[in-house]
């Protein structure tokens, strides 16, 4: 079922979300200072390519990573992450207005978590988290 929903996601706009994040990531990586944030946009791009069957979690076992992650996330929110979050909130709410759009709206709400706090988060496959 995830495969079918991911294909529909791509056909009905997910490819544009992916391409937008790739373009932003490339633009940021062209500057030396923007590389850390460009890498986070690539993370968002990968997540937005096939969001069904995936989620994000905080990375475990990060010794000494707390303060730099918080600092980088605050800079992220101030200089662009806020607009990423607003974009996904808007599309999530808009898509949830119809019954057919609810699964796609939920995927946008999942991307809000990554848009707010990308540093220190990893993308996980939900199938690998289920007990056998």
From TrEMBL:
Coarse class of the protein's main subcellular location: membrane
Lineage, broadest ranks: Bacteria, Pseudomonadati, Pseudomonadota, Gammaproteobacteria, Kangiellales
PANTHER family: INNER MEMBRANE PROTEIN YCCF
Name of the molecule in the record: Inner membrane protein YccF
Location within or outside the cell: Cell inner membrane
Endpoints of the signal sequence: none
Entries under InterPro entries matching the protein: Inner_membrane_protein, UCP028777, YccF
Domain (Inner membrane component) ranges: 4-54, 71-121
Keyword vocabulary terms for this entry: Cell inner membrane, Cell membrane, Membrane, Transmembrane, Transmembrane helix
Domain of life: Bacteria
Membrane topology: Multi-pass membrane protein
Residues that span the membrane, as ranges: 7-28, 34-52, 64-83, 89-106
Any one Pfam family match given in the protein's UniProt record, by short name: YccF
